[in-house]
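Researcher: Here's a chain I'd like modeled. Treat it as a single chain, no partners, no ligands.
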Amino acid sequence: MIVDTSQSALNCRVLVLNKHYMAVRVVSVRRAFSLLFRDLAEVISCEDGSYNNYDFQSWRQLSAFKQQFEVHQHDWITTVNFDIAVPRIIRLLFYDRLPRQSVKFNRRNIFARDRNHCQYCGKKFPTSELSLDHVIPRTMGGKSTWDNIVCACTDCNSNKGGRTPKQANMTLITVPAKPRRNPVIHVHLNHDRYKSWKQFLDHAYWSVELT
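Model: Modeled as a single isolated chain. Structure tokens:
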């Protein structure tokens, strides 16, 4: 049972592979440890250029060693009786389904695709200061699709109004399109702690589902 931990460790994400080592989703640290503790998954750890497999107990024992010699290379969960390193990758032992092929069309993925940049002025904004704009306004038959929705800051959205970019004398910095992979994954891959994910994603032609 997790009773005390740093907030940063709980905010980490864990890549989940199916039994055939294919990435299927990204989950929270709590979910990952729940699967490990119930022997539904094992840890996949990158060590000296190779990947090794550990069940919950062997990962706990290895964590004791890592805490002595690699403490700054890991995020840590503290329990009543021991500290345990947060795994970066786990493998489901009994799940062999393939990942979904389609990237979900939702607000989170649109913000991630556009990297929180207004697609008219090019500036980066917090999510709270961005809106979604229909390139071809709905009043002109524009639809809510990947190629007609972009992030726009308040000022640009207001300046554009119910017009097309051409009518408003504005230019899109990027042509909107549906991503081939889940764009949120690329946000995680920019962080050093998730570099071990890369090998399992580089050769994929599917998207990774976030849950």
